[in-house]
Amino acid sequence: MKVLVTGASGFLGGAVAAEIVAAGHEVRTFQRRASGVIGVQDARGSLTSAADIAAAVSEMDAVVHLAAKVSLAGDPAEFEAVNVGGTRNLLAAAAEAGIRRFVYVSSPSVAHAGSSIMGSAAEPADPVRARGDYARTKARAEIVALAADSPRLSVVAVRPHLVWGPGDTQLVARIVDRARAGRLPLLGHGAALIDSTYVDNAASAIRAALERADDVHGRRYVITNGEPRPVAELLAGMCAAAGVRAPAWRVPAGIARAAGSAIEALWRVRPGVDEPPMTRFLAEQLSTAHWFDQRQTRSDLRWSPGVTLDEGFARLAAFSNGPAAA
């Protein structure tokens, strides 16, 4: 297939583009800057530009849509324009161009209302109860995407959960930086079970969804390693790989949630230059269980993860201690 991958300059997007190339497909990427992925054709542009999108989808057979505004804070209008409006624009252009397959890369946060998730499958996206502008707009965009599923356009939604691995500048880098500075607490007892996904597994699952789209269209899937660990153990594994002491001090979960809400309110009035140190969404993510039933995902996509969490930690350590870390 000729596949358009949006957001390939990002950590997961780049891995997905490389995975699809390795599987023998022809890949064009679409984002604001060069993807850096070997073997692809880069097309630069914005999801808010109809002309940019029309050029990007031209002569393609399929779309894998990862590009989004991802942040714990920011202008609500920008989240709406990029995440919802951009998805609408891309779907319209894909239909006009005669594209037959569309994989929308979503997030489990679209169905997380702040309470624990234990063994659930992919529940319906809920923009009303989802936490934060990112999750709310991703939820609306997922609903829009699945509503576009038709005999002419096979749409699948996939939700990779907590993707991490070597080179991750978001989850892993932020955890390590905060731990190094002594600013990473455990919320509650750190015992909440959390699923995560090693980046190679997320990429191969998304490629599987693309290749299986005609058989599984109209459905949504959560993607994880299927190895839930206590949040303290997960954080400790990432810290150990970077040679940083794991967090040992604790903050009651209720206090963290209240502080997160207060910081969010302050950030709306006087936003900082970086991500807020805590939000209610982040506090809930770090203090509640969220692990998922992977049986349907693996059966329908005919996929299973190829890298265990322990192997992933070993790869992360090798990367952190290699020449690039010097």
Write the SSE topology:
Layout: E1 2-6, H1 11-22, E2 26-31, E3 41-44, H2 50-57, E4 62-65, H3 76-97, E5 101-105, E6 117-120, H4 132-147, E7 154-160, E8 163-164, H5 171-180, E9 186-187, E10 193-194, E11 197-198, H6 199-211, H7 213-216, E12 220-223, E13 229-230, H8 231-241, E14 250-251, H9 253-269, H10 280-287, E15 290-292, H11 295-301, H12 309-320
Parallel strand pairs: 1-2, 1-4, 2-3, 4-5, 5-7, 6-15, 7-12, 8-11, 9-14
Antiparallel strand pairs: 10-13
Helix pairs in contact: 1-6, 2-3, 3-4, 8-12, 9-10
Descriptive overview:
The protein is α/β, with parallel strands linked by helices. It has a domain at 2-160 and 196-224 and 293-306: Rossmann fold (3-Layer(aba) Sandwich). Helix content is 43%, strand content 17%. The chain contains twelve helices and 15 strands. The strands form five sheets. It has a seven-stranded parallel beta sheet with strand order 3-2-1-4-5-7-12, sandwiched between helices. Strand 4 (62-65), helix 3 (76-97) and strand 5 form a beta-alpha-beta unit. The longest helix has 22 residues, at 76-97. The radius of gyration is 19 Å and the shape is globular. The model has no long low-confidence stretch (mean pLDDT 88).
Q: How would you concisely characterize the structure shown here?
A:
This protein has helices at 11-22, 50-57, 76-97, 132-147, 171-180, 199-211, 213-216, 231-241, 253-269, 280-287, 295-301, 309-320; strands spanning 2-6, 26-31, 41-44, 62-65, 101-105, 117-120, 154-160, 163-164, 186-187, 193-194, 197-198, 220-223, 229-230, 250-251, 290-292.
